[in-house]
Amino acid sequence: MRNLRLACGVAAALLASACAATGTTTSPTAAAQQSAAPGYLALADQSLPSGGTLNLQVHIDSGAATGYDPQLADVATTWQLLSLSYETLVTVGPDFSVQPLLAEKWDTPSPTEYVFHLRKGVRFSNGREMTADDVVGSLKRLLASKSVWRGQLGPVKSVTADGDGEVKVTLSEPYTPFLAALANVPAAVLPMKEIDDKSVDPATTLLGTGPYVVENHRQDVSWAFKRNDRYWNKGKPAADALNITIAPEEAARIAALQNGSAALATLGNVDSATMLAGAGNVQVGTQATTDFYYLMLNSLKPGSKLADPKVRQAIAIALDNQQIADVALGGQGKPTAITPAGLPGACDPAALPSAAKSVDDAKALLAEAGAQDLSFTLTIFSTEPAPAVAQVIQQNLQQAGITVKIEQMDEASWSGKVYGKAPADFDAALSWFAGYADPGMVTRWWNPETAGFNVGFMKPDKELNTLIDAAGKEPAGPSRDRALTAVCAKADADAQMIPLVTRPATVAFRTDALSPSLYATEGYGNVLRLVADARVKKTR
To answer: What does the pLDDT read at residue 110?
Structure first.
């Protein structure tokens, strides 16, 4: 994958412009990190008074297809919105360590037993106290659901309550990512009494223990939140209200930052820092993430040459992930294996079997498969930087004699084509995973029988599934690292889903309007994770 080095001076217009921007997009991040605490991109100034309204803009709303039920939420953009009202038993710190949230502590009497001691005084926003029955009911509901996330909880055998203060979860076998899997929004504690008596439908109503309560929502337009006055964490949230505008066009979000109508916005274009360089009081930072882009090759489409593993291996070899990171992402992303780069214990992408081979090896595999004149369509969504990533992929594969036509769609249309039916009718598609907080978690998506979303385009690989399960049982340490390395190598050879590069999050905020807290690296794609800490700077 690392054998196709195109210099900026001789590449196409895309490459030239992106290379020119590389040096300018990194400096705001460095400046932000120097002024924040270790592990933070920014840290809210707690000496500022609380109160005020925080206005921010994001590019996409929560998924309307599944409503607002957190257990059915399967994309990070939905997680970040629902996390304003829902909370989990545990959370993750800036170093990916699992930390207390609704559970103030937990014990592990054995490798398959977890006893959670629930925090006292926690109430849902309707005033009812959270009980152990809510926790037990939430986990059982998740395990019985069709949620994508249920597979991340691993081999849960039983969930029981011991009075109102403790919940015990027993696994049928050890599963190292279990605690990390509890730290994400789909594992949130729900108001099970109200759900069971049907007075609340979580698909249409957000009723949680979190810092904010929904006042109003217009799909694909806006959200209005107000502080939860019953929130258990005293002194939070700092802001009285939170207004979120859904602004699909990047130019609109940039303009909102420039004119002050937004105090914070998420951005996708790697050139956005350059575009905002002249804007007064605007700070742009790059939040590293464990999210990563990946290429889906449809092995189930009738008559497709991508069903041949030699063809898929040739494509994996011909891709230059370092170039994708340098050019399409302005040097802000990192090549990755299926275990996200940056997580402790993750595989080294430079050690993958495909990384040791050349474009000539790719051509030889294509010749063996009778696919010397291979051409296919790459379906992508139009949100930046996906088009730039696709263009580098197109140029990479051209070096191996493969012709790629790029089909660009809005996100809803793209999702319908890629996930709408089985077998899916696309050739290849570009997407991204949230990488999570444990290197073994995202590997489970390489088993379509666990993942579900990829049954329309991916064949199960029994050997790979066995390796994934074996790695999940290993405790953190050298033996687990070796087990994950075996998973990475097998997935690399299978090449039905090819990991590419990590997906950084560009965040910009007005320093004259806001003092936010942001992790330097985010594991669940949630740029709003610490929004309850944010201090609004009141203008006179």
So the answer is: 97
Q: Summarize pLDDT for 106-126 with one digit per residue, the tens.
A: 999 999 999 999 999 999 999
pLDDT along the chain (540 residues), means of 10: 32 33 34 64 95 95 79 87 97 94 97 98 97 98 93 96 94 97 97 98 96 95 96 96 95 94 90 83 91 96 95 98 95 94 93 96 97 96 92 98 97 90 95 91 94 94 96 95 97 97 93 96 90 86
Cα separations in angstroms, 243 against 52, 86, 167, 221, 411: 11, 17, 36, 11, 23
Rounded Cα gap, residues 34 and 228, in angstroms: 33
| Strands annotated E in 411-524 | 428-433, 497-502, 505-510, 514-515, 518-519, 521-522
Confidence (pLDDT) at 269 = 78
Q: What is the pLDDT of residue 6?
A: 30
Taking the C-alpha atoms of residue 22 and residue 324, their distance in angstroms, rounded to an integer, is: 12
Radius of gyration of the chain (CA): 23
Using CA atoms in the order 422, 424, 430, 434, what is the torsion angle rounded to 10 degrees?
A: -10
Q: Tokens 């992790």 correspond to what residue?
A: 519
Q: Which residue has the tokens 């270790």?
A: 38
Which tokens belong to 256? 């909102």
Helix (H) or strand (E) segment spanning residue 314 = helix 309-318
**103-110 and 98-100 beta bridge pairing:** unpaired
- Taking alpha carbons only, the member of 258, 223, 257 closest to residue 242 is 223
The overall average pLDDT reported for the chain is 90
pLDDT reported for residue 161? 97
Tokens representing 126? 């309707």
Where are the strands (E) in 390-439, listed by range? 403-409, 428-433
Pairing of strands 166-171, 113-118: antiparallel
CA distance 295 to 324: 12
pLDDT score at 501: 97
- Residue 57 near residue 68, CB atoms below 8 Å: no
Read off the DSSP letter of residue 420: S
Total-model pTM:
0.86
**Is 229 exposed, middle or buried (CB count within 10 Å of its CB: 0-12, 13-18, 19+)?**
exposed
Q: Is the dihedral of CA 324, 328, 331, 336 positive or negative?
A: negative
Q: How far apart are CA 331 and CA 323, in angstroms?
A: 9
- Alpha-carbon distance of 520 to 199, in angstroms, equals 40
- Burial tier of 394 (Cβ tally within 10 Å: 0-12, 13-18, 19+): middle
- Give the pLDDT score at 75: 81
Q: What one-character-per-residue DSSP string does 53-66 give?
A: EEEEEES----STT
- The DSSP string of 71-111 is GG--SHHHHHHHTTT---SEEE-TTS-EEESSEEEEEEEET
